[in-house]
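R.M. (postdoc): so does anyone remember the format we settled on? I'll just put the structure tokens first.
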């Protein structure tokens, strides 16, 4: 699953920089820029859905921020 996630990130970044290239080099044909950014958004949505599905199936284990452990000792007063 990690390989699929990494591949999706590479495709997303490739599409993002492709859109930037078409925006800078060929502003008269903006359809290529829009198409490239549409691919990026579609890939991003597919990545999020794949992560949610993988967590639901138990293939990946999401984890959160560990809570800060509170000390039971008395506070030091000046």
């Amino acid at each position: 699953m990690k390989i699929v996630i990494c591949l999706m990130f590479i495709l997303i970044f490739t599409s993002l920089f492709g859109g930037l290239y078409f925006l800078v080099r060929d502003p008269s044909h903006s359809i290529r820029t829009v198409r490239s950014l549409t691919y990026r958004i579609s890939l991003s949505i597919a990545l999020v859905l794949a992560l949610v599905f993988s967590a639901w199936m138990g293939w990946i284990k999401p984890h959160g921020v560990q809570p800060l452990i509170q000390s039971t000792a008395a506070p030091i007063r000046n």
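R.M.: ...and that's the designed sequence above, right after the tokens. Also worth knowing: The mean pLDDT is 83. The helical segments are 2-25, 30-57.
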